[in-house]
Automatic annotation (TrEMBL):
Belongs to the complex I NDUFA8 subunit family. Keywords: Disulfide bond, Electron transport, Membrane, Mitochondrion, Mitochondrion inner membrane, Repeat, Respiratory chain, Transport. This is NADH dehydrogenase [ubiquinone] 1 alpha subcomplex subunit 8. Its main location: mitochondrion. GO terms for cellular component: mitochondrial inner membrane. It comes from the Eukaryota. Accessory subunit of the mitochondrial membrane respiratory chain NADH dehydrogenase (Complex I), that is believed not to be involved in catalysis. Complex I functions in the transfer of electrons from NADH to the respiratory chain. The immediate electron acceptor for the enzyme is believed to be ubiquinone. Coiled coil: none annotated.
Length: 175
């Protein structure tokens, strides 16, 4: 794909946001609660990206997703840091594929802390796979107009004679 001088690219300042500096096991430990906490913001970003098809148009929504994740992780750190760290360490060190199944006890402790202190219940298995309706405040984009081909040939008149098929009927199974 080529880029011309007419293409507007965002500046470095527009793209710079504070990063979520966590390891994979820590993100995996927070994934269910984080997904539920930031669900609306994340859905808005995905909807923008899919509808507009231009990632440059959704920079603000992407920044909102990162800000929501950072806000959530600060809440976890201030309320359930010990339980979260223990759960993330279990995921990291108990199996080679960071399996949830070997860390159910530490998961239960973390989930109880999240419920008691932040009133956040862990979403049930399959919650994120269900169909959910997202109400967006952004205007719906205009649909693309249908393609118009100006060089199409004229249609045959209705009374035009059609020769019989050269090799017989195409409907072999119709008889």
């Amino acid at each position: 794909m080529g880029i011309t001088k007419d293409v507007h690219l965002p500046t470095e300042a527009e793209l710079t946001v504070p990063e979520v500096k966590l390891s994979g096991p820590a993100l995996k430990a927070a994934a269910f609660h984080l997904g539920k906490y930031c669900q609306n913001v994340n859905n808005e970003f995905v909807l923008c990206r899919d509808e507009l098809g231009d990632p440059r148009a959704c920079i603000g929504e992407g920044k909102a997703v990162t800000a929501c994740a950072l806000k959530f992780l600060r809440l976890v750190k201030s309320n359930c840091a010990g339980e979260f760290t223990q759960y993330a360490n279990c995921l990291d060190k108990s199996s080679t594929d960071q399996s949830y199944s070997v860390c159910r006890k530490t998961q239960a402790v973390f989930d109880k802390c999240m419920l008691d202190k932040l009133k956040m219940e862990r979403p049930y298995y399959g919650y994120f796979a269900e169909v959910q309706i997202h109400d967006s405040k952004r205007p719906k984009p205009k649909p693309e107009p249908p393609l118009v081909f100006t060089d199409t040939p004229d249609a045959l008149p209705a009374d035009a004679k059609k020769p019989p098929a050269k090799y017989g009927s195409r409907y072999l199974f119709a008889w």
